Amino acid sequence: MYKILICDDESGIRTLISKYAVFEGHSVLEASNGMEAVNLCKTRDIDIVIMDIMMPELDGFSAVREIRKFSDVPVIMLSARGEEYDRIHGFETGVDDYVVKPFSPKELMMRVDVIMRRRSRTGTAHDIYKKDGLEIDFTARKVMVDGSNTELSPKEYDLLFYMVKNKGIALSREKLITNVWGYDFFGDDRTLDTHIKLLRRHLGDYSTLIVTLRGTGYRFEG
To answer: How confident is the prediction for the chain on average, in pLDDT?
Structure first.
């Protein structure tokens, strides 16, 4: 199964998640602060990280930023707050999913499975999309805007790639969530809207290629 790093300054939370993870057949490493998590990601083979936001020494957002300098390991962020700012900040940092406390440990493990299964389905056929100054390399997972490389989070890449592959087609919110996050996604529409907002910000002058279809979803015009 998966090697999961659980990072939370509350030992009770770590124990609860660890119990369910081990029951599901996963192996677990624990960290009580962001600095420990960063060091473990550098020295150990980690499949996925479950990271709290509010921690001593190094908070979750800062820890993810450090981890992203050397690894694209999936990260699920835990938080006692559910404001849009936290979700946006987390996704900008490179977080794959966001769970608000209190949460169901069983649901959390199902989210882990969804993310890991999704990651294993990545295709290998080389393909490049170009539109004026926008260049998207699907194989290398690179997005160039007017000659400059634009760093996206793993889920932002998945969403953009799916929309571009289906350019000119009206994509319902349900279809986007199903095909990008998975059939058993447990989030809500705000997660999709937040990622669309971040994608438009990354695309700059080409943000207009993502068209909002009121009451339906989105369409990539290319």
So the answer is: 87
Q: What is the pLDDT of residues 41-67, one digit of tens each?
A: 999 889 999 999 988 889 999 999 999
CATH of region 3-120: 3.40.50.2300
In CATH terms, the fold of domain 128-220 is Arc Repressor Mutant, subunit A (1.10.10)
51 within 8 A of 37, measured Cβ to Cβ? yes
Which helix (H) or strand (E) segment holds residue 23: the answer is helix 11-23
Instruction: Give the list of residues 6+ apart from residue 76 with CB closer than 8 angstroms, or none.
Output: 48, 49, 50, 51, 95, 96, 97, 98, 99, 108, 111, 112, 115
What is the number of other CB atoms lying within 10 angstroms of the CB of residue 144? 15
| H helix or E strand, kind and range, residue 99 | strand 97-100
Q: Which residue has the tokens 């760093």?
A: 151
